[in-house]
Amino acid sequence: METGLGRARGRNMSKGLHAEARFENEDLVFHGRVRDGYLRLAQEEPGRIRIVNAARTPEEIQADVRKIVDEVLNKSI
């Protein structure tokens, strides 16, 4: 969680968007509650919500997301 939040905050700072980034500006307790909520939803609806490990390189994350999207698109054909 901290890794992804750090990336988002860094991206916002580099683009001068710190003031507009209200979710990224929330503390870790807030983000922990949001994460817990999504993890519960993913457990309840595994066919609809997927978990991606964001504590890896952006390239690895992108590959996982692309694989998931491809799977979903191939199911709908």
Provide a descriptive summary of the structure in words.
It is a single chain. The chain is built from three helices and no strands. With 77 residues, it is an all-alpha fold. The radius of gyration is 15 Å and the shape is globular.
Tell me about the largest β-sheet.
none
> Percent of residues in beta strands?
under 5%
Mean pLDDT over the residues: 85
Which percent bin holds the helix content? 55-70%
| Number of H/I helices | 3
Write the SSE topology.
Blueprint: H1 2-14, H2 28-44, H3 58-75
Explain briefly what this protein structure is.
The protein contains three helices and no strands. With 77 residues, it is mostly helical.
Descriptive terms for the model:
77 residues, mainly alpha, 62% helix, globular
